[in-house]
Design brief:
The complex is a heterodimer.
Chain A lengths: L17 E11 L2 E12 L3 E5 L6 H9 L5 E8 L3 E2 L4 E4 L13 H9 L10 H12 L16 H12 L6 E5 L7 H17 L3 E5 L11 E6 L1 E6 L1 H6 L1 H7 L11
Parallel strand pairs in A: 3-8, 3-9, 6-7, 7-8
Antiparallel strand pairs in A: 1-2, 1-4, 4-5, 9-10
Helix pairs in contact in A: 4-5
Chain B lengths: L1 H7 L13 H26 L3 H21 L5 H20 L5 H21 L9 H5 L7 H30 L1 H6 L4 H23 L1 H18 L3 H26 L3 H24 L1
Helix pairs in contact in B: 2-7, 2-9, 2-10, 2-11, 3-4, 3-5, 3-9, 3-10, 4-5, 4-9, 7-9, 9-10, 10-11, 10-12, 11-12
Classes of the chains: A alpha/beta, B mainly alpha.
Chain lengths: 256, 283
């Protein structure tokens, strides 16, 4: 079942720039992980993927990132550049750094976004650039903290800042709300809104937190296939949703 | 070398007198090359949680020397280097293709290597005793030619660090993030493992198989206790290694114990020290 319906997109890109996923099938040895999944994501749009654990959300992300083999097609088109390889910013799931890792936020930034060897003294110019990036997520104060000492919400903001360096066409966040408290969640959602206004990019997130769904443009319920897609209200009221999560689940987060 | 001898002659030690105890001066220079090698590699061995793996590599190096001796090579260490590299690559490959825990696979490789080494060295009823020097090591037997070779290796490792430290660090702390940033995990891992293999094999004769792994773990472990970023981590690990190297050599000279063991014990004391510092800071 694929969703071919186009939604009017923000920012005047006339529905032309989008990520198109068509007939995506992923097999891991003999297991079918994703079965004929298809959807469109327009520029400026925020789509949330929901589904139980093992539904294939992470596999879908990995396929889009090009680090997992798949059948079907994933293409990216934009009004300005035509067909192109999209720049993807990726915020991975639950980083879980060791609390003892002798790596600071600055180190992590330098190691992932520059070619400068992070074990040498870091020039002021690079440090300032990192500060600039962190400012986007209100995280300047985190620059010298060890990555293992950050709270879940702080870590997500740092990873988000890294994913925005350089500003991508497509931003993918895998379970950004897991391990993040209520306050951190609100901050993160506000940040995502602001980023969508500021930059010309689309966002794809996966989440177990159904209360945040009223802030997204479209929800896709995934369980190997796409079981339902559309407005949050419709998906949360669908039979497929009730079957998977039980009645009333949409009022709170999924209990795991 | 003459420049080095002239330099050491200026030191106010008994063994530093001009024209005397060249082996001691060679050993000191060798320590100054070997210890930063281990100091650098140690940071990533610890960060990548490969302590047990480097131990297994030491065993495979021993196997290589046994095989080289059996084949009749005058200098079996090249045979050992080749075998250790094969071992490192095979290990990286097998771990990539199985769902067994990494320590299980290391155990499989390590025990196979050491059994093969003993098997080869005792084949035909020969005595194992001539390999005893490998187990304990003798830094005083190092020659200027070998020191030159080690200096080249040090240069190569520094180049590897300059080119790959970012990828190595990322893949150690978060493989998925590293992959999404275009890091080729397998390639990085294989390259680093080969570097460890070469260094362990070439220094085993002087440091000793039984304690070589401690040099790969203790400097990094000691530094990790008190480091808040990569620069502190690397520099403290380097300093610890070099300090323990020199101090260990001196202790072994004046007391007459094995240099490798003395260095290791001093490293252990350094670890205990940084451990206490960390705990005091935490409380």
């Amino acid at each position: 079942m694929s969703i071919e319906k186009h939604i009017n997109c923000h920012g005047g890109c006339h529905g032309k720039c989008c990520l198109r996923v068509r007939h995506l099938t992923v097999r891991l040895e003999d297991d079918l992980i994703l079965d004929d999944v298809g959807f469109h994501l327009h520029c400026g749009e925020l789509i949330a993927l929901i589904g139980p654990n093992g539904a294939g959300k992470s596999s879908l992300f990995k396929s889009i990132l090009g680090i997992m083999p798949y059948q079907g097609s994933i293409t990216f088109e934009s009004a300005e550049h035509g067909k192109q390889k999209p720049r993807i910013g990726y915020v991975p799931q639950n980083p879980g750094f060791d609390s003892g890792d002798p790596v600071s936020v600055l180190d992590l930034f330098v190691a992932s976004t520059t070619n400068y060897p992070a074990f040498l003294p870091i020039p002021a110019a690079i440090r300032n650039r990192v500060l600039e990036s962190l400012r986007r997520v209100n995280g300047e104060g985190l620059i010298d903290r060890r990555v293992g000492s950050l709270s879940g919400g702080e870590m997500q903001r740092v990873l988000l800042a890294m994913a925005l360096e350089p500003v991508p066409n497509l931003l993918i966040l895998d379970e950004p709300m897991s391990g993040v408290d209520m306050e951190g969640e609100q901050q993160l959602l506000e940040l995502l809104d602001r980023i969508r206004e500021q930059y010309d990019l689309s966002i794809l997130i996966s989440t177990h937190d159904f209360q945040t769904l009223n802030r997204v443009d479209k929800v896709i319920l995934l369980q190997k296939k796409i079981l339902a897609a559309g407005d949050a209200k419709d998906v949360l009221r669908s039979d497929a949703f009730r079957l998977l999560f039980g009645a009333g689940a949409e009022k709170g987060g999924e209990t795991e | 070398m003459n420049l080095w001898y002239a330099l050491v002659d200026l030191l106010p030690f008994e063994w530093a007198e001009p024209g005397r105890m060249l082996f001691m001066k060679n050993a000191l220079l060798a320590i100054l090359v070997i210890s930063p090698l281990f100091g650098l590699l140690s940071t990533m061995v610890v960060e990548k949680k490969m302590s047990f793996f480097s131990d297994a590599l030491g065993h495979s190096a021993f196997t290589g020397i046994a095989a080289g001796t059996l084949a009749g090579f005058a200098d079996p260490s090249w045979c050992a280097v080749a075998l250790a590299i094969c071992f490192a690559l095979l290990f990286t490959w097998v771990r990539d293709r199985t769902n067994l825990a990494s320590d299980t696979i290391i155990g499989v490789f390590s025990s196979t290597a050491v059994a093969l080494g003993i098997f080869l060295s005792t084949i035909g009823g020969r005595s194992f005793t001539k390999f005893n020097t490998l187990l304990v090591g003798d830094i005083l037997s190092v020659t200027p030619g070998k020191i030159g070779l080690l200096a080249v290796i040090l240069l190569l490792v520094v180049l590897l660090w300059l080119g790959s430290i970012n990828q190595l660090t990322l893949s150690a702390i978060h493989p998925a993030l590293a992959r999404s940033r275009g890091v080729r995990l397998w390639q990085q891992e294989a390259l680093f493992n080969c570097a460890v293999a070469v260094v362990v094999t070439l220094t085993m004769t002087w440091v000793g198989l039984l304690v070589i792994n401690s040099l790969l773990i203790l400097p990094g472990a000691a530094a990790r206790n008190v480091s808040g970023n990569l620069r502190q981590y690397t520099s403290i690990s380097l300093l610890t290694a070099v300090f323990a190297g020199i101090a260990g050599l001196m202790v072994s000279y004046y007391i007459g114990a094995s240099a490798g063991a003395s260095i290791t014990l001093i490293l252990a004391i350094c670890f205990a020290g940084t451990f206490c510092v960390r705990n005091r800071a935490a409380s």
